[in-house]
Amino acid sequence: MGGNDYQVLSQVAQIYRRNGGTVRIVAHASQDASGQSADVIERGNYEVSKRRALAIVAQLERIGVPRSAIIAEAASDSEPAYGTNTARGVAANRRAEVYLDF
Fold it and tell me: Order of strands, edge to edge, in the sheet holding 22-28?
């Protein structure tokens, strides 16, 4: 996670402290498919998205959001937001979405 990521998560924690509710994390992954079976790619993307979600959960806990208020999901590569036919699209699909449910 970079500095901007920490800033965003700090803002999420502030909003949570003011309003309560639930913080829902949906982590995504996208791996270049060259030379690997679809099964291997799917398992790899799931593991990457799971680790991404858990890293965000850990950071939110460090900055004061209780674990009981966080839901984490690993979406793997099942919901691409960008085309996967370019390196830029693949990279952009490596993301996490944060939702605040009140």
Answer: 70-76, 22-28, 96-101
